[in-house]
Structure formats: structure tokens, C-alpha cells
TrEMBL record:
The lineage of its organism: Bacteria, Bacillati, Bacillota, Bacilli, Bacillales. This is Heme-binding protein. It comes from the Bacteria. InterPro entries: GlcG_carb_metab_protein (IPR052517), PduO/GlcC-like (IPR005624), PduO/GlcC-like_sf (IPR038084).
């Protein structure tokens, strides 16, 4: 499976549905390609304005660092590193960014969610990543 614009739009809808069903609140959600470039984005009505950029940076960070943003945050804390050491102002260590890998394990893109508690943002990206990995998309 490859990440297409149509697939990315489906993933956006899946994420928005999960946000409302599980948390009852709106989100911003970004899907990036395998380079971290934004492929598509949506801000649900009522989602915080600050979450626009945060969701995009979460997706970008996951792809650039090769791990979910919660894992990246743990690395920074464990090694007592400042994020600025990476010399990339596009990075964020806020949980809620994840890699999208197909069934073969190939990284095909990234997803970032913002607008909820960071653990809730992260859970939505994990859900989307699992769907992509299982190639369980209608």
C-alpha cells in the first residue's frame, strides 16, 4: 500500500470520527508523506487555532525522527537533551505524532493530531497507524 491523497483523506475522516466518538471534542489532524511534507490537513470546527501548526509539526517530527513523538519525548528526557540541539525549528516533542507503515513495514507517511490532551492525541494517531499497518481501510 502506498499513501495517496484519497487514502490520506480517508485517514483524516477516521481520525475525526474517533476524536468525537472517544473524546467528544474537535481536533486538527495532518497527514504527511514519507518526507514529512504536508499532504492533507483538516481543522474541525472549534479546534484550537494553536493546534493547526502543532498537528503539522507532530507529523513532521515523527517522520524526521523515525519514531512517534511520545518516543521522541522519552528519548529527550532520558538523555537530558534539548530539542534545539537538533537544529530544526519544525520539531516538537509533544505526543500526538506517528509514523504510517504499510503491512510490509515500509514507512509511507506520518500523522499528527492536536487539540486534545497529548495522550488522547497520541491514541488517535496510534489507532490510525494500526489501521494503515493492517491495511484495513475500506
Amino acid at each position: 500500500m502506498e499513501l495517496t491523497l484519497d487514502l490520506a483523506r480517508k485517514l483524516i475522516e477516521i481520525g475525526k470520527e474517533k476524536a468525537i466518538k472517544d473524546f467528544g471534542r474537535p481536533i486538527c489532524i495532518a497527514i504527511g508523506d514519507d518526507s514529512g511534507a504536508l499532504l492533507t490537513f483538516d481543522r474541525m470546527e472549534g479546534a484550537p487555532l494553536r493546534s493547526i501548526r502543532i498537528s503539522q509539526q507532530k507529523a513532521y517530527t515523527a517522520i524526521r525522527m523515525g519514531v512517534s513523538t511520545d518516543v521522541f519525548l522519552s528519548r529527550l528526557q532520558q538523555d537530558n537533551l534539548e530539542i534545539s540541539y537538533y537544529c530544526d525549528p519544525g520539531l516538537t516533542a509533544l505526543p500526538g505524532g506517528n509514523l504510517l507503515k504499510n503491512k510490509a513495514g515500509k514507512i509511507i507517511g506520518c500523522v499528527g493530531v492536536s487539540g486534545l490532551a497529548v495522550s488522547e492525541d497520541q491514541s488517535i494517531t496510534e489507532y490510525i497507524a494500526k489501521i494503515v499497518n493492517e491495511e484495513n481501510i475500506d
